[in-house]
Design goal:
Layout lengths: L2 H26 L2 H8 L6 H22 L5 H21 L3 H33 L4 H24 L4 H19 L8 H12 L11 H32 L9 H24 L1 H21 L3 H15 L2 H12 L4 H29 L2 H4 L1 H8 L14 E2 L3 E2 L8
Antiparallel strand pairs: 1-2
Helix pairs in contact: 1-4, 1-5, 1-6, 1-7, 3-5, 3-14, 4-5, 4-7, 5-13, 5-14, 6-10, 6-13, 9-10, 9-12, 9-13, 9-14, 9-16, 10-11, 10-12, 11-12, 11-16, 13-14
């Protein structure tokens, strides 16, 4: 594969991450408006919200099977438009059953999208021979900030969901379809051989993924998303109810978290290249654990904001490096490893918010912040899973390859 092809593939995949960041933020930040539009009760709302990550996990499992027959780029090319159209459907409907169909389609397609995007990211990183995964997730964070800003504008001007969503989808859908022409799969030759062997009834060596070896990364993924969902769901309430901030100031922690997540991922690849993935993940885990400790012991709102800011800088490196580590751990079956690992993204998302809420009700919200702190620090125990002897040399850098692209 030529250097130009890899560069174009990298840019087109970054665009897909950005589009997904915008789309997901537009959905989750307008949940109150969706609830009002469809007249969903507070008791029923959690069932709708839980259905999305559950179905996303199903979509990830289906994608694992699909990529045995077609390239991940093909899955991504069709999953992204479905995600965008599902968002539009959620804003255009008027009956609860219509919302149910839209969210079901969103969940299934977003699982396929997340899995296939990270499969391609792992493949491209292998071709580059150096860390680039954090850059893709930085594009997702940038999209999340853009989507949250668009959602704020829609709420501020009291725009309907359809009016808020339609212009965004009208721009992003053709952009994603055009960009998909340049998806690059550095493992395409290997996959083609495996598909031919499978069609001929031959066994493909190295395709199995030992769950015992993948389990540490699965736990790290789930714990990281428990930490992330704690910030997204509870930071505003914590600042206002526990630390006594104003309603306006209570919106600052999540914004600060999003910005520092973007900044950390934008420079994180440089850290991985210089110090190696194990050192970066350890530093991120320690910083995130310290952030939760600061939040739990904060004496005032601004100290709490400092803690949430530390969380953004710490947690932001863990998820991209977990996907990259799965690719290194199972180089001959990276698609399978990524798809299975991706399921624990949704496990953490499902567990995090209810866990902190339940602990806050029966214990205290300060104490509840210590639980995700301990979970994030467990990553230190499994840090060695993020590097292999084949991919480290000297001081823990990634081994350079023959491909040299910008």
């Amino acid at each position: 594969m030529t250097d130009a092809r890899l560069r174009h593939g990298r840019l087109s995949l970054a665009l897909s991450f950005f589009v997904q960041g915008v789309t997901f933020a537009l959905l989750v930040t307008r949940i109150p408006a969706i609830q009002d539009r469809y007249g969903i009760s507070d008791a029923l709302l959690p069932a709708f919200l839980a259905a999305v990550p559950v179905l996303a996990g199903v979509g990830s499992v289906i994608t694992e099977k699909l990529v045995a027959r077609v390239r991940p780029g093909v899955v991504l090319r069709w999953a992204q438009p479905v995600v965008l159209l599902s968002l539009l459907g959620a804003g255009a409907g008027g009956e609860v059953w219509q919302l149910g169909i839209a969210l079901a389609a969103f969940g299934l397609s977003v699982g396929a999208l997340d899995a296939s995007m990270n499969m391609l990211g792992v493949s491209l990183q292998r071709a580059y021979g150096r860390s680039i995964m954090l850059g893709f997730h930085a594009a997702y964070s940038l999209g999340g900030i853009a989507g949250a800003s668009l959602a704020w504008a829609g709420a501020h001007w009291d725009l309907s969901l359809l009016v808020s969503y339609l212009p965004v989808v009208a721009v992003l859908l053709p952009a994603a379809l055009i960009g998909s022409r340049w998806y690059a799969d550095a493992d395409d030759d290997r996959r083609g051989t495996e598909r031919s062997a499978g069609a001929a009834g031959e066994s493909v060596a190295g395709k199995s993924v030992a769950f015992k070896l993948l389990l540490p990364l699965c736990l790290v993924m789930a714990f990281a998303y428990i930490g992330d969902s704690t910030v997204s769901n509870w930071s505003a309430k914590y600042l206002q109810d526990v630390l006594g901030s104003s309603e306006e100031l209570a919106t600052v922690p999540y914004n600060a978290y999003m910005v520092t997540t973007l900044l950390g991922r934008a420079v994180g690849d440089l850290g991985v290249r210089r110090f190696g993935p194990v050192a970066v993940v350890r530093c991120g885990s320690l910083l995130a654990g310290a952030g939760f400790a600061v939040v739990a012991s904060a004496s005032g709102a601004w100290v709490g904001i400092l803690g949430f800011t530390m969380l953004g800088l710490g947690l932001c490196v863990i998820v991209p490096q977990t996907f990259a580590a799965a690719g290194r751990l199972f180089p001959a079956a990276s698609d399978t490893a990524v798809a299975r690992l991706n399921i624990f993204n949704y496990v953490g998302f499902l567990i995090g918010s209810p866990l902190v809420g339940a602990l806050g009700d029966v214990w205290s919200y300060r104490g509840a912040m210590l639980v995700p702190m301990v979970m994030v620090l467990v990553t230190l125990v499994y840090a060695r899973s993020f590097g292999t002897e084949q991919d480290r040399y000297g001081g823990g850098h990634e081994r350079p390859r023959t491909v040299d692209v910008g």
